[in-house]
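From the methods appendix. Each design record in this collection lists the tokenized structure first, followed by the designed amino acid sequence. Records were kept in a plain field format so they could be parsed without special tools. The example shown here is representative of the layout used throughout.

RECORD:
FOLD TOKENS (279 positions):
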């Protein structure tokens, strides 16, 4: 399969492929627009995603040095009442963890099999010129399990790319995986972040995993991007009606239980189109 010229592998499109090769094919090869409601309560979902995006922007501005008083004022008038609570949780629990050189909303990439792997980080800290700490902010209602986070494509890709390309942040030729930690901080659960240190064994496993995955995609021809057999993957997929995998969307509660993340869908959805769809 020849991928589009400007195609980069990201956590989002790799996850789509791993969930369902056909979804990957529809979305990134054919660029098929087929909006279906992702969850039953689409307006609540939309609002939750947008509030998550506003919260990310608030932290970004804070890290870039915008005075806190101005950001407090923005948080106080936010239409989503959760946001001010998340903001207070952040201010009480996170700033003391942010020592070091800050790289905010920074993107890194690394080549693999003549393709490009790309990650966009909420924050990377370089501490003592040698330790690299990734922070990822989550607003999902559920604090996910450490084991699940370790297995997540985002965790695997972000730590792997930082090990390959993080020298551009430290000014050194090489980064050892042991220098890297990834922290997930959940705004509704502001206790300490879930911290996932990297190591050489996990790095080797990730390299093999991503190489196999990309090679598999490159080796497939169009008719071999099959629909997943696991129909649970269809419950929150935009192409449900296209695939005749049910017209009813999964519910918002199940969305949390299924451990999907609203922020992952933020840029995938065309809410204007969604509002035109009736079920
Ligand atoms: S509805 Fe199911 S089979 Fe169809 S693209 Fe989505 S996940 Fe794949």
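DESIGN:
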């Amino acid at each position: 399969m020849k991928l589009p010229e400007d195609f980069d592998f990201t956590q989002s499109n790799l996850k789509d492929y791993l969930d369902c090769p056909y979804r990957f094919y529809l979305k990134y090869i054919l660029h098929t627009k087929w909006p279906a409601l992702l969850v039953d309560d689409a307006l609540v979902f939309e609002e939750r995603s947008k509030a998550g995006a506003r919260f990310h922007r608030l932290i970004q501005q804070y890290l870039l040095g915008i005075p806190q008083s101005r950001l407090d004022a923005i948080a106080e008038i936010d239409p989503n009442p959760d946001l001010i609570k998340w903001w207070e949780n952040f201010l009480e629990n996170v700033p003391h963890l942010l020592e070091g050189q800050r790289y905010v909303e920074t993107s890194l990439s690394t080549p693999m099999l003549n393709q490009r792997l790309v990650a966009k980080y909420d924050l990377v800290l370089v501490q003592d010129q040698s330790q690299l700490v990734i922070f990822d902010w989550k607003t999902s209602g559920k604090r996910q399990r450490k084991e699940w986070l370790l297995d997540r494509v985002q965790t695997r890709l972000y730590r792997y790319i930082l090990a390959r390309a993080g020298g551009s942040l430290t000014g050194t030729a090489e980064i050892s995986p042991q220098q890297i930690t990834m922290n997930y901080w959940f705004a509704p659960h502001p206790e300490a972040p879930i911290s996932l240190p990297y190591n050489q064994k996990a790095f080797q496993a990730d390299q093999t995993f991503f190489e196999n995955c990309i090679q598999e995609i490159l080796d497939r021809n169009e008719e071999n991007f099959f629909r997943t057999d696991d129909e649970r993957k269809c419950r929150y997929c935009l192409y449900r009606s296209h695939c005749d995998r049910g017209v009813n969307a999964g519910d918002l509660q199940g969305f949390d239980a299924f451990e999907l993340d609203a922020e992952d869908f933020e840029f995938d959805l065309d809410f204007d189109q969604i509002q035109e769809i009736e079920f």
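APPENDIX NOTE: The beta strands are 101-112, 115-127, 131-138, 180-186, 189-197.
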